[in-house]
Amino acid sequence: MAFIIGFTLRWLLKSWLLAKLAIVVRRKLIKKYNLEKHFKQTHCDKKVKWSDLRWYADLAAKVYKSKDKIQAAYENDFKIYVNEINEIRYIVLTNESSKSHYVSIRGTANSHNAMQDINFFKDKSKRLGIYLHTGFHRTAEIIADDLLSRLKEDYKVCVTGHSLGGAIAVIVSWYLDHANFNVKECITFGQPKVTDSHGNRAMRDKIKLTRVVNETDVVPLVPPAGTHRHRYAHIGTMVKLLDDGKYCHLQEPDSLNFGVNSFWLFAARESFSFYEIGKELPDHYMTNYIYNLKMCSSSKSGEEVLWKDRLQYISHEGMLGEFGKKKKKEK
Q1: Which of 15, 83, 130, 272 has the most Cβ atoms closer than 10 angstroms to its Cβ?
Q2: What is the edge-to-edge ordering of all strands in the sheet holding 122-124?
């Protein structure tokens, strides 16, 4: 009995110390990366094209469906090409009248895809001259080579994808641009990081990239950045979706702020609890992205808010420490 009581007391003490440590780390991270109330956001004078984002979100979701459903959804307006490489399905919609190609790449759908996700070592692309996430790069290069033989150079190309598919979409867009195709834009949903700070500097002006991210989706924050010089980092404009139609629109360089894309800051916000982080996984699903985009595009509920104020627009009960206190106070 004494052993059980002693063990319980030690466990409670360790839990209390870890909770206190989480609060200290959280405060230091916020201060270090100039976030929350101290975040100086550049005014964004560009409007979010919600109708475009919703169309691409639907396309990114459709690639998860069966070939018959894909065919039924687009056969009246497009020529459709469906293929699968390394267990990654992708589709190409071609509109002859507008001279346009639309490419959608599927995200994680099986264990093989999951292994590609976690293979986050980097290898160098000989064509692009930058280092890329190995798991994403190997498949993206094969898909790009297939597309190079099928797309028409005088057509505009738009690429989209969700999760793993979004990461591959970015690399495929870079390869198509390198081959002198007219890549109009790349729009991704819940996309993880694909290259490091050196790669971002080299590719920053190559394509128009928009990342759509749910605030409580942890996948865009991985791979977790370390302290090494060329750590994984994001690139492109970011539309951050909150609850009830609220959103943040961050242009570069605001969207590139290390703290904005920090896995460790997110983990600190969740008190470094795997349970709390795990509860956020449904926010990575395309159904949630489509719903949030619908709310944001509504004239009644859609409203842009500043990054520093965004936490009061998140209906999440798992936040602890000063984040939770702040939210309760402002309610």
Answers
A1: 130
A2: 122-124, 131-133, 195-196, 232-233
Q: Which residues of the chain have pLDDT under 50?
A: 227, 317-331
What is the pTM for the complete model shown? 0.85
Pairing of strands 237-241, 246-250: antiparallel
With 0-12 / 13-18 / 19 or more C-beta atoms within 10 angstroms meaning exposed / middle / buried, residue 265 is buried
d(CA 183, CA 174): 9
- Whole-number Cα distances in Å, 88 to 85, 97, 122, 176, 239: 5, 29, 20, 18, 26
Q: How far apart are CA 182 and CA 156, in angstroms?
A: 5
Judge whether 176 and 144 are in contact, CB under 8 Å. Answer: yes
CB 293 within 8 A of CB 61: no
pLDDT in tens, 200-247: 999 988 999 999 999 999 999 998 865 455 788 899 999 999 999 999
Beta bridge partners of 209: 186
Q: What is the pLDDT of residues 101-117, one digit of tens each?
A: 999 999 976 655 656 65
